[in-house]
Design a protein that fits this description.
By secondary structure, this protein is α/β, with parallel strands linked by helices. The chain is about 50% helix and about 20% strand. The chain is built from 15 helices and 17 strands. The strands form four sheets. A five-stranded antiparallel β-sheet has the order 1-2-3-5-4. A hairpin with a 2-residue loop joins strand 4 and strand 5. It starts with 8 loop residues before the first strand and ends with a helix.
Length: about 600
C-alpha cells in the first residue's frame, strides 16, 4: 500500500522488499540530502534514520514504499515510509528504532488504513535557500541516473560515516576538555580574586569601624567643647554686663548737669567712654543671647500673636534708627494674616535684628517689612526687604556664621552675631530663616513660621527610665540629640519622684520583659509578672495631671494581649531587637506631637 501522494514535490519513490533495498534507501537518503545542499552531518542523520526505520518495516511489516519529497513552503525534505501491514510500535525493536530516528530527524507516526505511515522530516539549511522547480527537476534527473551501490559498498560508506562521526565526537571531546581546563583555570582565578577582595573588604570594614569609633569620639569631644564654649560665653557675658553697665552709669553721672562742670575736652572723653561702653554692652548682650540659644536655655513662651501689633511696636522703636534721609522704613499692614502661636518677644527680637541689619547696609532707597499667609502650607511668611549693597552668592550662607561679616568697601560695624542668633531663634520656634540677595540690588530675608507649631517641635527635657545596660546607654545618647536635657531614673519610684519635681516633655521607659522562670518567679512574688516599667505606665495613666505626658516604651516582643494590657497608655512601642537611632528618634518625635494615646 502506497497511500496518497501528500504535499510537496515528489523526487523519488522506492519499494523496500529486501535487505539490499534497505541499503539502497540509506544510499538514496544521503544522495538526496547532498543534492539539496544539506551539510555532511545532516546527510548522515537522514541516511541513518531511514536505515533504522526501513530495517524494522522490512522485518515487522513485510516491507514498505518510501517516497522522497521536498516541501517548498517550509522548506524541508520529507520522507514517507508506508507499510501495508500494521507496524507494532509497542514492540521493543520498533520502539527503539523510532526513538533513535527521532534523535536525528523529526518523526511522526500515523495510522494509514490497515498499514502505518512514518514521516521523517529535516529542514533545509537557510543558506541553501528554497529549491526552484528547475533545481528539483535536475535533482530528480540525477537520482534517476544513480546506480544503486552494492551492499558491500553501502556498508563501507556506512563505516566511513561512522568513522567520520567518531572523529567529530573525538574533536568535540577534545574541545570540551580544553574548555573545561580553561574554565578550571578561570575558576581558580575567580576564587583567588574573591579571596583577595574579601580580605580587602574585611580590612576596609575594620578601617570603617575604627573611623566610626574615632568619629564618635570626636563628636563627643566637639559636643563637650561646644557646651564648654556656651557655658563660657554665658558666664563671661553675665560677669561682664555688670561692670559695663556701671561704667555707662558713671559716665552719665559725670555728664549730668548737676555734677561738676567738665571742660570741653573732658566732655568729649566722657562721651567717648560712654559710647565705647554702650558698644561693649551690645556685644555682651549679643554673646549672652547667642550662648542661651546654643545651650537650649531659651524656652519659648507660646501665645497667640497678632502681627499687626508686632509691626506697630517695631515701627515706633526702629524709626529713630532710620537716620538717613534717603532711606524710607516701611511696615506693610499684615492684611489677611491670621494670628500665629509663637513667642512674641523672640519673634520681635528676630525682626528687630533683621530690620536693624538692613538699615545698616542701605544708603538709599527703602527697607520694607511685610507678611503674608500661606494657607496651603499652614505658614506665616515675613519678609524684610532692602535696596542696600546686597550680598555675594558665595557669602549668603556664611553671614549666618558667628562673628562673620561680609568684607567690602562699605563697612557698617557690628559684632556679626545678630544673624546667627536670629536663625537659631527661628529654628527654635519651628521655622526657617533664609536670604536671597544680589550685589548692588539689595537683599530679602524671609522668615517662615507655622501658624500653630506642631507639638514636640522643641523638646526641653526627656526622662529616661531603665537600668544601666549598653542598650540604655545607647538610647540615652540618641535622646541627647533630640532634647536639651536628658535626666535618668533607675526605676518607677525614682521616675515618679523626678516627675513630681519637673514634668518632662517625653518619658522613655525601658521595659525588660521577664522570660521563662523569671516570669514565673515574678508572679509568685506577688508582682503578677509585670515589669517595673509597666507599673510606671499605670501610675502615669491613673494621675490626671501626669496622664498627658507622652511615653515611649522600648521592650522585647510580647504577645498581643499582654502588650495591649501593659502598654495601652504608651504613645509608641519600639522593639528592643530592632531599635536604631532613626526609629527611636522618629518614635520620640511622633510621641511628642501625638500625646499619650496611640
Amino acid at each position: 500500500m502506497t497511500g496518497p501522494a501528500g504535499d510537496g514535490t515528489e523526487l523519488l519513490r522506492l519499494r523496500v522488499r529486501s535487505e539490499h533495498d534497505v541499503f539502497t534507501v540509506r544510499q538514496l537518503g544521503r544522495e538526496v540530502a547532498a543534492a539539496l545542499r544539506m551539510d555532511h552531518q545532516d546527510q548522515i542523520r537522514v541516511a541513518t534514520a531511514l536505515s533504522e526505520v526501513g530495517r524494522q518495516m522490512l522485518a515487522r511489516a513485510g516491507g514498505a514504499v518510501v517516497t522522497f519529497r521536498v516541501s517548498p513552503a517550509e522548506p524541508m525534505l520529507r520522507v514517507e515510509a508506508v507499510t501495508a501491514e500494521r507496524l507494532e510500535q509497542e514492540h521493543e525493536d520498533v520502539a527503539g528504532a523510532l526513538a533513535a530516528a527521532a534523535r536525528l530527524v523529526e518523526v511522526e507516526v500515523l495510522a494509514d488504513g490497515e498499514g502505518t505511515r512514518v514521516r521523517l522530516d529535516r529542514r533545509l539549511p537557510p543558506a541553501a535557500g528554497t529549491p526552484t522547480d528547475k533545481e528539483l527537476t535536475q535533482v530528480r534527473a540525477a537520482l534517476a541516473r544513480l546506480t544503486p551501490a552494492s551492499a558491500l559498498d553501502e556498508l563501507a560508506a556506512q563505516n566511513e560515516d561512522l568513522l567520520t562521526a567518531l572523529g567529530e565526537v573525538q574533536r568535540q571531546r577534545d574541545e570540551l576538555l580544553r574548555l573545561n581546563s580553561e574554565l578550571e583555570e578561570t575558576n581558580q582565578g575567580v576564587l583567588a580574586l574573591y579571596r583577595q577582595l574579601s580580605d580587602e573588604l574585611e580590612e576596609t570594614n575594620r578601617g570603617v569601624v575604627a573611623l566610626y569609633a574615632e568619629l564618635d569620639q570626636r563628636s563627643a569631644e566637639l559636643r563637650k567643647a561646644s557646651e564648654a564654649k556656651s557655658r563660657f560665653l554665658a558666664n563671661a557675658s553675665h560677669e561682664l554686663r555688670a561692670p559695663v553697665t556701671a561704667i555707662i552709669g558713671l559716665t552719665r553721672l559725670l555728664a549730668d548737669a548737676g555734677s561738676a562742670p567738665l571742660t570741653e575736652e573732658q566732655a568729649e572723653q566722657v562721651d567717648l567712654v560712654r559710647t565705647s561702653a554702650a558698644d561693649l554692652l551690645s556685644l555682651v548682650n549679643d554673646l549672652l543671647d547667642l550662648a542661651k540659644a546654643e545651650s537650649g536655655r531659651i524656652e519659648p513662651a507660646l501665645v497667640e500673636v497678632a502681627l499687626g501689633g508686632v509691626f506697630g511696636q517695631l515701627r515706633g522703636t526702629l524709626r529713630p534708627l532710620a537716620t538717613r534721609p534717603e532711606v524710607t522704613l516701611l511696615f506693610d499692614e499684615p492684611v489677611g494674616v491670621p494670628a500665629l502661636v509663637t513667642d512674641e518677644m523672640l519673634l520681635t527680637q528676630v525682626l528687630r535684628n533683621l530690620v536693624t541689619n538692613a538699615l545698616k547696609f542701605t544708603e538709599q532707597g527703602m527697607v520694607r517689612v511685610s507678611a503674608r499667609w500661606l494657607p496651603a502650607e499652614g505658614l506665616v511668611e515675613m519678609e524684610v526687604t532692602d535696596t542696600g549693597i546686597g550680598i555675594p552668592a558665595a557669602e549668603q550662607e556664611r553671614i549666618f556664621e558667628e562673628f562673620y561679616q561680609v568684607r567690602g568697601a562699605f563697612q557698617a560695624g557690628g559684632t556679626g552675631l545678630g544673624l546667627p542668633y536670629a536663625r537659631r531663634v527661628v529654628t527654635l520656634l519651628g521655622g526657617t530663616l533664609t536670604v536671597a540677595s544680589e550685589p548692588g540690588k539689595g537683599s530679602r530675608f524671609r522668615v517662615r513660621l507655622p501658624r500653630v507649631p506642631p507639638r514636640g517641635t522643641h523638646l526641653g527635657q526627656v526622662l529616661m527610665v531603665g537600668g544601666d545596660t549598653p542598650l540604655e546607654a545607647a538610647v540615652t545618647q540618641v535622646l541627647l540629640d533630640e532634647a536639651d536635657r536628658v535626666s535618668e531614673a533607675v526605676d518607677a519610684a525614682q521616675a515618679l519622684a523626678s516627675i513630681s519635681v519637673e514634668v518632662p516633655d517625653v518619658v522613655v521607659v525601658r521595659v525588660s520583659v521577664p522570660a521563662g522562670g523569671d516570669r514565673a518567679e515574678a508572679a509568685r512574688s506577688g508582682r503578677g509578672g509585670e515589669p517595673d516599667g509597666v507599673a510606671l505606665l499605670r501610675a502615669l495613666a491613673a494621675d490626671e495631671r501626669l496622664a498627658a505626658i507622652p511615653v515611649v516604651v522600648v521592650t522585647e516582643p510580647v504577645d498581643g494581649e499582654r502588650e495591649a494590657a501593659w502598654f495601652g497608655h504608651a504613645a509608641a512601642v519600639v522593639s528592643a531587637e530592632d531599635v536604631t537611632p532613626e526609629t527611636l528618634r522618629a518614635a520620640v518625635r511622633d510621641a511628642a506631637r501625638a500625646g499619650p494615646a496611640r
